[in-house]
């Protein structure tokens, strides 16, 4: 079990979708201090608008213990409209509705809880739009 | 830089080794390698291991291993690069011998994976813990997304993908150290339980206990110890993004391409010079993409080529003569070393019914995570 700073420090990215936009136009979630592709160090903080497109997806049938109660669940790699890439669960949909190219919106949801007495964790998940 | 040879190899059987702890397994492999090399003292040890802490609660294993293999006092270090840890141990040992710092250096790898229940959690720590694993995605899930992207982009069918584990299981039948040395048919693959759609259980390498060790020395000294040294012709290593979603193209593994390019350049060789390759088929799709990145097949053609028999005996190149990670087993920290042991046996001509005829150059490719790191070795028969 982790102590709360482990999660609270990620709140800007996970709750509010705060991302890093470099002068070159590249956008990353979470914070980076140097662009891994261009070496650019000049950036601004932006907030993602939360919409994007599925690049690939899977349905998880066997999960680690902390997520076992949620199976089966959908996971996708999404490129946001700003160009940031992220991995997220896709919820409130049927398996056959998922496609490469599907449009999604990121919403705020409960992600997992650390056992019966641990921290309850939140973050983004995607829904189809 | 001095030329470097492998003069001894040793490994445990791969499988569920309930009677052996992590130190027992490593001592067995290490002592077999020392006997094979005709040495009773080594100068230094590198041991590759992904996660002895999470799997067995034992860290500081460099000390444990030297103590239990009768080599107290020597310098030793554990190295870690997830599933590529074993190859990083060999690269570290290579640099120590090539530089002239030491003469007789052991590179080993070990993983004890059956002592805990939530192995899926441990393996997921090799992904981006905060931005991948936190969503609930598993390692099979990451490779499943590569598989779906590849199938979408190149039209690979589910049946063609199944040909990778079918081929590797066929190869494993003649490997006495393999965890699952039996043939498997299409129906078994396609009806095995779904793990992460589209990947089923029989697309996935297993949970395995095992250890492997090799002994390196300067090429000029090798014949003092053994008649059949094998030369490490080249090593290439590279890193890639930790998160799969940061790969520009989800059907590519840039770290593998970079590691391969560096190894070919160091060796002065090209893909067509390589007779056989042990590659990191942690999941069926991985072997296809890796074979393309190493230049054995064009992008998008690897899956169909493997399905058409181009990666087995009589084809363009023999890939995973040992049975690969899928059938031989995948004790993650030991895998890179075990791949090199298969290459050594092939180049010594002692691979028995698995023997690839007239092999001069063999390659191994080991990979961490979803392409976060990779190491490629090219070995040469003497």
Description:
The complex is a heterodimer of chains A (129) and B (382). Chain A is mainly β and 129 residues long. Chain A has one domain (5-128): OB fold (Dihydrolipoamide Acetyltransferase, E2P) (Beta Barrel). Chain A is built from 2 helices and 8 strands; from the N terminus they run ααββββββββ. Chain B has 382 residues and is α/β, with parallel strands linked by helices. Chain B has helices at 22-37, 52-56, 61-68, 85-98, 119-124, 139-154, 158-172, 186-191, 219-225, 254-267, 284-293, 302-307, 324-328, 332-348; strands at residues 4-11, 44-48, 76-79, 105-111, 194-197, 199-200, 210-218, 230-239, 276-278, 318-319, 361-368, 373-381. Chain B contains 14 helices and 12 strands. Chain B has 2 domains: 4-118 and 207-230, Peroxisomal Thiolase, Chain A, domain 1 (3-Layer(aba) Sandwich), CATH 3.40.47.10; 137-204 and 231-381, Peroxisomal Thiolase, Chain A, domain 1 (3-Layer(aba) Sandwich), CATH 3.40.47.10. Classes of the chains: A mainly beta (129), B alpha/beta (382). Chains A and B meet through strand 4, strand 5 and strand 6 of A and helix 5, helix 6 and strand 5 of B. Strand 4 (51-60) of chain A pairs antiparallel with strand 5 (194-197) of chain B.
Map the helices and strands.
The complex is a heterodimer of chains A (129) and B (382).
Chain A: H1 5-8, H2 11-16, E1 18-22, E2 27-28, E3 43-47, E4 51-60, E5 73-80, E6 85-90, E7 103-113, E8 120-128
Antiparallel strand pairs in A: 1-2, 1-3, 4-5, 4-7, 5-6, 7-8
Chain B: E1 4-11, H1 22-37, E2 44-48, H2 52-56, H3 61-68, E3 76-79, H4 85-98, E4 105-111, H5 119-124, H6 139-154, H7 158-172, H8 186-191, E5 194-197, E6 199-200, E7 210-218, H9 219-225, E8 230-239, H10 254-267, E9 276-278, H11 284-293, H12 302-307, E10 318-319, H13 324-328, H14 332-348, E11 361-368, E12 373-381
Parallel strand pairs in B: 2-3, 2-4, 9-10, 9-11
Antiparallel strand pairs in B: 1-7, 1-8, 4-7, 5-6, 8-12, 11-12
Helix pairs in contact in B: 1-3, 4-14, 7-11
